[in-house]
Write a structure and sequence with these properties.
The structure holds two protein chains of two kinds. By secondary structure, chain A is mainly beta. Helix content of chain A is 0%, strand content 48%. Chain B is globular and about 45 Å long. Classes of the chains: A mainly beta, B mainly beta.
Chain lengths: 107, 123
Amino acid sequence: DIQMTQSPSTLSASVGDRVTITCRASQSISSWLAWYQQKPGKAPNLLIYKASSLQSGVPSRFSGSGSGTEFTLTITSLQPDDFATYYCQHYLDSSRTFGQGTKVEIK
Amino acid sequence: EVQLVESGGGLVKAGGSLRLSCAASGFTFSNAWMGWVRQSPGKGLEWVGRITTTTYGGIRDYATPVKDRFTISRDDSKNTLYLQMNSLKIEDTAVYFCSTDWEEYSGRQGAYWGQGTLVTVSS
């Protein structure tokens, strides 16, 4: 199975900061990667699909990049509503592994 | 408006069975690949499995921890997705989410999610 590794596990940042989260796949997944935001007690919310396509309705401060085995999610100017946990997920083959998550906390 | 509503969660003893349902509306369910994802208390998201459309053969794939114990099925006439869980273990305790899976034309994955249903497995 393809393993997904996110870093960091926790990130402390302030409103207005530029934030980058990394996700690495154990083998090439081309661009078959999604990013989600999850807040406590809520379902995940799709932010980015196919590594860099912005989901409709998601603010443009969110962006995704990468292909192959290394991917990044960037938030250009962190807003109060962005404090949450972020997950990557591959969907290359018949499995759909998630990364372990990155919690973005208030500094 | 797309809606996914899970039901069927509850308390069950280890070794028991439970069937979850996910009622879909607001989109053409028969054209949608669908999946289940779970989240144990305080933990991250864990993919459980998915089912393709009938056009793609209704193929089901599962994560290793649930293979041979869980079965995903769909009833396109009722716009409903199911998760049959047998031989339940304490470590299956989690909130179970249904979601849309891969969309062929857009390439999206996981665009829509239900609110989740809690399954608690006791000893």
